[in-house]
Amino acid sequence: MTEQELLQERARLWRVDGHPVRTIEDARSFLQSTGFSLLYPVRSLPAVPTFIGAYAGSAEGLPDGRHAFADPRTAPATELMVRLLREHTAYEINFLPESSLLVSAEMFPFLYALVGDRNAKGAPKIKAQGARVSPLGLKVFEAIQNRGPLSKGQLRELVGREPTTAALDRALNELWSILKITRVNYSESEGAVWDLLYRWAPKVVKEGTELSLQEAISGLLGKYLDTVVAAEQEEIEQFFSQMVSRAKIRETLHALQAARQLKLTTIGAKAMFQVPPEPIQPRRRIHG
Q1: Do 113-207 and 212-274 fold alike per CATH?
Q2: Which fold has domain 113-207?
Q3: Are the beta carbons of 136 and 126 closer than 8 angstroms?
Q4: For 51-109, what is each residue's pLDDT tens digit?
Q5: Distance CA 60, CA 186 (A)
Q6: Which of 51, 61, 44, 1 is nearest to 26 (CA)?
Q7: Is 249 left (phi over 0), alpha (psi -120 to 50) or beta?
Q8: Which terminus of the chain has a lower count of CB atoms within 10 Å, N or C?
Q9: How far apart are CA 19 and CA 62, in angstroms?
């Protein structure tokens, strides 16, 4: 495979080859095929598909998260995304400040096993960075737990002392980063509506809590390489280091390579990991 052939195959899989995603059926097919995609492009992660790119049918001239509000393609693409969330075909992850990550229902348990709380129903204690969850974060969690799905406006009234928008956003992001809550709906009038993840999606959360860290990384790595066709080690580490340590990624890459589930190949002048002809199938434990 040449570099040009690699780019052409990525363009086909990522729907940026002039065949845009415009219907809910297209959107389901795209996300089930890729497993996950950024909502908007992130400069440091070029080897990841984007939902806005799939909607546009092109990788050219796409808005980043900061400028998406001014792009006419954003509203219809967001509506498609929200429909996927409503029907549980997709889950949205607080991935980076520049863009959230959409994950298919099939792949979400593997991602939950990496970043979610094993005590799914318990009150949050530790943020993604290891610090304790803020008092406002705990109040937000309790309000959603007791009242059900809530918008930001409703939360502001319930948590007391009317926190600033910035403070409430920080609290929501704390909980979203550790998958305690998730966005389940969106409207122009109310904005996002939030619910507890274990209540919104109990089956996939349960599956995620039953996967080991090694199973989760292996399954996600296999799907990622299917989606990007081939990738350099640095590209792989750059993407997954948002969820797990680089040391753990390297350990898993080497283990999969030793087991011949991954291979190193040369494309152009670059050494790249690739899934052999028989793709890795993410495995879930069978209990009972």
Answers
A1: yes
A2: Arc Repressor Mutant, subunit A (1.10.10)
A3: no
A4: 999 999 999 999 999 999 999 999 999 999 999 999 999 999 999 989 999 999 999 99
A5: 27
A6: 51
A7: alpha
A8: C
A9: 15
